Amino acid sequence: MIAIHSYGNTRDGNHSQGLADDNPFVHNRHDLLKEVKHELGSAGRDLNFNAYSDQRSLFRYDMHTLPSEISSSIGTSTLLAAWNAAIYVAQVEDDRLSDVNSDRRYIEATRDVLQKHGGLWFYDESFVISRRPNRRDRCPPRLSA
Predict the structure, then answer these.
(1) What pLDDT, on a 0 to 100 scale, did the predictor assign at position 81?
(2) Are 135 and 74 contacting, i.e. CB atoms less than 8 angstroms apart?
(3) DSSP 8-class letter at 44
(4) Residue 50, strand partner residues
(5) pLDDT value at residue 22
(6) What is the C-alpha separation between 63 and 125, in angstroms, rounded?
(7) In degrees to the nearest 10, what's the CA dihedral of 11, 111, 73, 81?
(8) Tens digits of residue pLDDT in 49-93
(9) For the CA atoms of 50, 51, 57, 63, what is the dihedral angle to 10 degrees?
(10) What are phi and psi of 89, to 5 degrees?
(11) CA angle, 40 as apex, 37 and 43 as ends, to 5°?
(12) Phi/psi at 33 (nearest 5 deg)?
C-alpha cells in the first residue's frame, strides 16, 4: 500500500483569513508509520514499513491553471477550486468554515495567493507498507530432472 500524506511547509499554503493560525501538519510519515506498526502489533510482523528518505518520499503537487486564469480577473471556478484544494489539504472541518465562507474575504485571499505565486501547490510525502516475501517467494522452485 502506498499512502500519500500532506507534508505542509507550503509557502502561503494556508492562505485563508481566519485559518492562518492553524498547524494541521503536526504528524509526519514517520509518526504515522510508527502508530500503524504499534496498532497492528503482532499482526504486522509480516509487513515492511518504509518511510524512505525525504528525497524519495517528498514531492510537490501543483494545481495547474491556464495563463489567462491567473490574470487580473481570475475566474470564480478557478478561485473556488483553489480554495477547496487548500481547505481539503489542511483538513479544515466544515463547521469551522461557516464563518469564513459567510463573506467573500476568502475569495480575495485566494486570488491574492494565486496572483502572487502564479498558482497553488502543496508538498506531500509518501510512505509504503508492504508484505514481506516469505521464504517460498524468495527462492525459485527446484526443477527435477
Answers:
(1) 86
(2) no
(3) G
(4) 128
(5) 60
(6) 17
(7) 90
(8) 999 999 999 998 888 777 677 666 777 888 888 888 888 877 777
(9) 100
(10) -60, -40
(11) 115
(12) -65, -40
Locate cell 505565486: which residue? Answer: 117
Specify the residue for cell string 500500500. 1
Higher pLDDT, 139 or 78: 78
- Tens of pLDDT, residues 16-54: 434 445 666 778 999 999 999 999 999 999 999 999 999
Which residues contact residue 122 at a Cβ distance below 8 angstroms, ignoring those fewer than 6 apart?
Answer: 6, 7, 10, 13, 60, 61, 85, 89
Burial of 44 (0-12, 13-18, 19+ CB in 10 A): middle
> How many other C-beta atoms are found inside a 10 Å radius of the C-beta of residue 79?
20
Give the pLDDT confidence score for residue 137 in this predicted structure. 60
